[in-house]
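Now for one protein, fold included:
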Amino acid sequence: MRLTRRTLLGSAAAAAATTVLPAARARAQTPTIKLGVLTDLSGPYKDIGGPLAADAARLAVSEFAAKGFTVEVVQADHQNKPDIGAGIARQWFDRDGVDVILDVPNSGVSLAVSGVAKEKNKIFLVSNAATSDLTGSKCNANTIHWVYDTWMLAHSTGGALVKAGGDSWYFITADYAFGHALQRDTTQFVTAAGGKVLGASAYPFPGTSDFSSYLLQAQSSGAKVIGIANAGADTVNSIKQAKEFGITQTLAGLLVFISDVHGIGLETAQGLVVSSTFYWDLDNRKRAFADRLWAKVPNVRPGMGHAGNYSSTLHYLKTVTDLGVAAAKADGAATVARMKAIPTDDDAFGPGSIREDGRKLHPCFLFQVKKPSESTKPWDYYKLLATTPADEAFRPLKDGGCPLIKA
C-alpha cells in the first residue's frame, strides 16, 4: 500500500476516533440526576433561600461523590407567585429532565409545586416553606417537608411566651397561606393555654415595607404580645419599625432566621426569643458543615432553610444509590417511600427520620438573641434556652388530617 499524506491523515483520524468515541459513549451512557432549586432570588425571602440555597445543595453533591451517576443542580426564581412557581415546575419536569425540586421559600408557591409533583409523579423536598398543611390536609406521597412548619413554630415560640405570661396577643400577618397558617396555629396554642387574641392585621404580600399603621393598631390593642406572622425582609422591617416607634409590648418573631438577626443587628434584636431547628454554632457537626459552606461562600452563615437543602439533597442521593438511578427516576412516590424508610443522618441535623405524612423529624431549639456584649465573633447571635425533642417538636401524626394516614 502506498503511503500518502492523505492516507496518513485518514489513519490518524481513524485512530483518534477509535480512542475518543468509547469515552464519549461512556459519558453519554452515564445517567444524570437533576436537582432544581426553586427559590426567591430577588424578593423578601432571598436571604433565607436565594443563591445560598443552591450552594448548600451543591455542597452536598460535592461531598456525596456519587458513583455511577452524575448530578446537576439548576436554579430559578419563583418571584413569590404560585402560578410562576408551578409553571417552572412543569417545565422542569416535562422538558428539562429535573427529578426533584428543592427549597421553595413561600407557602403558597410550595402548595402549588407540591400539586405539580404529585401530578407528574416527581419529588418535592421542601426546606423553606412553613405551612403545616403540607403534611396535613394537603399532604401527598411525593412531598417531604424537611425543616420547620407553622405548628412547630407556634408550639415552641408561642407556647413559651404564653407560659411566661404573654396571655393576650395581636397578630401582624402576611396575607397569604403562610401568614394565615402561622396565625392559626399560634392562636390554637394561645387559647388552649387560657390566653386570648385581641385582633389581627393582615397586610398585602409581597410589596409591603411600611408597617407603621399595623404596629400602631397592635399597640393600641393593649395586647401583651405582638405576634409577627411573617418572615425574611418583612420580619426585619417589622421589628426595626417597632423599635423606632418605641413599642414596648413583647414582640414575638414567629419565624426568625439568623439572616434576619444579622439584618436587624444585635442592638435592636437583643432579647428576642426565636425558634429554629438549626443554628450553625450549636455543636461541632453543625459548625463543621457551616465552615465547609463558608469556604465556598464566605462572610455568611447558613440558616435552617439552607441547612435543609444540604440535608435533603444528601438523603435523596443516598436513596438514589440504594434504589438505583433508573428506579429512582421512574417513580417519584416510590422513591419518597424509600426515603421515609431510611434513617437520616447528616452534619446539619444529626440523626433523624421521616414520618409517613412526609414530616422530617428532628429537635427544635428555643433561642434568645444575645446582647451585643455577649457576642464574641461574627454571627455569634444565639444562646440556647430549651430543646424540644424530635418526637415532641412537630404536630402529632393523628392530628394532621393527612389523607395518606388511614385511621
